[in-house]
Amino acid sequence: MPAPPPALRHPDFRRLWTSSLCSGIAMQMAQVAIGWQVYSIRHSAFDLGLIGLAEFVPVPLLALPAGQLADRLPRVGVVMVSSLGDAVVATLLLVVTLHGAHQLWPFVALAALTGAISALGSPAQRSLTPELVPEDLLTGALALRSIAGQVATIGGPAFGGFLFAVRPESVYVASAVMLVVSALVLLPVTRPDAPPMAERANLQTLFAGVRFIRGTPVILGAITLDLFAVLFGGAVALLPLFAKSVLHTGPFGLGVLRSMVAVGALVAGFRLAQRPLAGRAGRTLLLVVGTFGASMVVFGLSRWFWLSALALAVSGFADMYSMNIRSTTVALATPNRLLGRVNAVENVFIGASNELGAFESGAAAALLGATPAVVAGGVLTVALALVWPRLFPALAAVDRLSAAGLREVLPVGRAGPAPAPEPTD
């Protein structure tokens, strides 16, 4: 029997990975149901984008306080409270569904609450992995973390679509249960405690993550490239429209389309977990972003289900490489005492690319039509990949994804996170 990946031999990281898998499946199941219910109310692409906007608005508003929480409180506790908060939202969505789900405003309000919970919990959750595994296993651990997310994205939408077709309420019941399990799995994790933070809370410490990112071009270039690529090139928010009005399939077909993004990402994740990038990381990042944009052009033009599914799989494969390079760069280049605040700011960029990108997709589709909006976004993403080396030459020059490799392009004095303690069962 093959041995598990090295990072999963660390018991606390294994618990974190299991928790992430459970919460990811629960949230993906709910997203399929929400998308179908929202689009069924008025058959409006703009409404789909509005849900994404509602999820994004709390992220920049709460980012800086959330970073302080992640750097001052035990991060495991913050993540557990976040999972329980999401379980409450799933329960409220169950109530809305039981009352017919005929109005848009409850979905918008609960999307905003989901965004607030994510904004407060995500910096702590993203900061845990570098603490739980040593540096030499970090790239593989981050790939495994992404694999958990992508496994959830494969199984969650398909299973959620199936449950919704049987009985809509069952999706939210299953989601709430899995989110509670996600929190309980973390109970045995006793470390790490809150990171040492000698500074008093003030405006200077509040904006420390912003200053660090601004002064580190490699990090700034990586996260802004991801922001604009997914902002312009992403089309996941429009999948209910394409499934129903272009490809003429039902809820299960929508779940399959959403899952295909994760299928491609999962293939890339397993490859990265087994064979982390050995070099040319910066140029690889630019290449996969360009590939992501090209796949969106194909998806926008396709009228065949199988071709659309294949294009989404390619986009997921490329996006996984991009996420892994970005996440590893941030984790290795950021000191542990700043990791929560840096991840909080990065979370704004991620939220902008996902939730605000969903609003942009819906608004563009309402103005231009779904196909022109997706194709134009893909073309813009390819253009970004061509221009970025001139704007951020240090990013293009990154070779090895290691602390030593990043020191070659980082400003003098930047240090990565402290080594993780050895695991104990």
Helix % is over 70%
End-to-end span in angstroms?
21 Å
Q: How many distinct folded domains?
A: 1
CATH architecture descriptor name = Up-down Bundle
Name of the CATH first level = Mainly Alpha
Low-confidence stretches: 412-425
Number of helical elements: 18
CATH topology: Growth Hormone, Chain: A
What structural category characterises the helix and strand content? mainly alpha
Largest sheet: none
Strand residues, percent: under 5%
What's the quick description here?
The chain is mostly helical and 425 residues long. It contains 18 helices and no strands.
Describe the structure.
The protein has a single domain (6-190, 205-407), classed as MFS general substrate transporter like domains (Growth Hormone, Chain: A), CATH 1.20.1250. It contains 18 helices and no strands. With 425 residues, the protein is mainly α.
